[in-house]
Design brief:
The protein has helices at residues 17-25, 40-49, 61-68, 83-96; strands spanning 6-11, 30-36, 57-58, 72-75. Strands 3-2-1-4 form a four-stranded parallel beta sheet. Helix 2 (40-49) links the parallel strand 2 (30-36) and strand 3. The chain contains four helices and four strands. By secondary structure, the protein is of the alpha/beta class.
């Protein structure tokens, strides 16, 4: 993907999201196009705190993918496995097929 910006959605706007957003900010090839959190207000607050429009905050990954057409999904990777990881993995699989 040399020379091409990677449009990415960040899933999970808690503590680990800070590491992802900081890494994205220093990489000119990464363009954050959406934030997702099951607590929509957390996604909105995180977007605004990092100087992004609140309109790119979504309550579901499905809504974020439909609205932003990303190339990648950045998962904040919890230390515990839960059902959201299956949904995220499936979404990434679908992105690879486009």
């Amino acid at each position: 993907m040399a020379g091409k910006n990677i449009r990415a959605v960040l899933v999970g706007c808690g503590g680990m999201a800070h590491a992802w957003i900081n890494a994205a900010k220093v990489n000119p090839q990464v363009q954050i196009v959406g934030f997702v959190d099951i607590r929509h207000e957390a996604a909105v607050a995180f977007a605004q705190k990092n100087n992004y429009a609140p309109e790119i905050a979504f309550p579901t990954l499905k809504a974020a993918i439909a609205a932003t057409k990303p190339d990648a999904v950045l998962d904040r990777k919890s230390t515990r496995l839960n059902s959201s990881h299956l949904v995220i993995s499936y979404a990434v699989f679908c992105l690879k097929k486009k």
